Amino acid sequence: MSMMGGAQARRAQLNREAVLSATPVRLLTMLYDRLLLDLGRAEIAQNIEDWAVASENLLHAQAIVSELSTSLNVEAWEGGEGLFALYTYVSNALMSANIHRDVARTREAIALLEPLRQTWHEAAALLPAQSAARAGGEYGLA
Fold it and tell me: Where does the source fall among the domains of life (predicted)?
């Protein structure tokens, strides 16, 4: 194994360990961070007409939105149905952004999701670790 391959393998192992040991709320913030990273990369790729890279990132973003949507317990809290509707809307926007190579739809998804990412990070920072695990379970993330 080359030096570069060893470093990549170690980084992948550390990422797996971080995910496996994370509380549900931390997992949620990690998903949002990756989702916005994918969307930012897709937007850049769309702007330079690198459609393969744009598509790869949009598809990964769609997978994350799907995971967020399916793990959401809409009955656990009052805003659950609204958040589910937002995830459905964003999922459709990302499909459209990919199919029609529409950077405006990618930007729209970023504009809708970035405030949520920030809010989840703020909420996670306010919760002690034990409460964070319980809160994540209440939102269908455990």
Answer: Bacteria
Q: What is the pLDDT of residues 5-56, one digit of tens each?
A: 777 777 656 555 655 557 888 899 999 999 999 999 999 999 999 999 999 9
Phi-psi label, residue 2: left if phi above 0, alpha if psi -120 to 50, beta otherwise: beta
Block residue for tokens 């890279």: 53
The pTM of the full predicted model, rounded to 2 decimals, is: 0.78
Cα–Cα distances in Å, from 110 out to 14, 31, 50, 119, 131? 28, 14, 19, 14, 29
The fold for domain 23-138 equals: Four Helix Bundle (Hemerythrin (Met), subunit A) (1.20.120)
**Torsional sign, CA 26, 80, 141, 54:** negative
Where helices occur in the chain by DSSP H, the ranges are 3-21, 24-47, 51-71, 80-99, 103-126, 129-138
